[in-house]
Amino acid sequence: MSVTRRRFHDELDALEVDILAMGQLAEQAVGGAVEALVGRDDAEATAVISADDAIDDMYLSIERRILELLALQVVLDRVGQRYLVLDHEDPGGVSVHPD
After folding, report:
1. What CA dihedral angle connects 35, 41, 42 and 44, to 10 degrees?
2. Ordered per-residue pLDDT tens for the chain, 99 residues
3. Taking the alpha carbons of 81, 85, 88, 93 in that order, is the dihedral positive or negative?
4. Nearest to 4 by CA among 82, 40, 12
5. What is d(CA 21, CA 36) in angstroms, rounded to the nearest whole number?
6. What single-letter DSSP state applies at residue 96?
7. Residue 39: what pLDDT?
8. Residue 73 dihedral angles phi and psi, to the nearest 5°
9. Residue 49 belongs to what domain range?
10. Structural domain includes residue 96
11. Alpha carbon distance 16, 8 (integer Å)
12. What's the structural domain count of the chain?
């Protein structure tokens, strides 16, 4: 596997870990919100609201990383398509033509 593809898969693995961690935080927040509601516990409700910023920050970070990863793959795919076309047109070798 090429270094570029390995990095792509490593980043996917890291994203999976972070998405699962964010899911656990969200699960805890929902549980805390239900407890606060059922128990009419203002302190618990305040704690849940305060912890929500960490979930939001995590979400934004994950979203940014996903968009960057996808953007990089589109660029690499476009470069790959260009060379595939060049290979098809010039089976004897790859030559780069300026756009």
Report:
1. -40
2. 677 778 889 999 999 999 999 999 999 999 999 999 999 999 999 999 999 999 999 999 999 999 888 888 766 655 555 544 444 444 444 444 444
3. negative
4. 12
5. 22
6. -
7. 97
8. -65, -35
9. 3-65
10. no
11. 12
12. 1
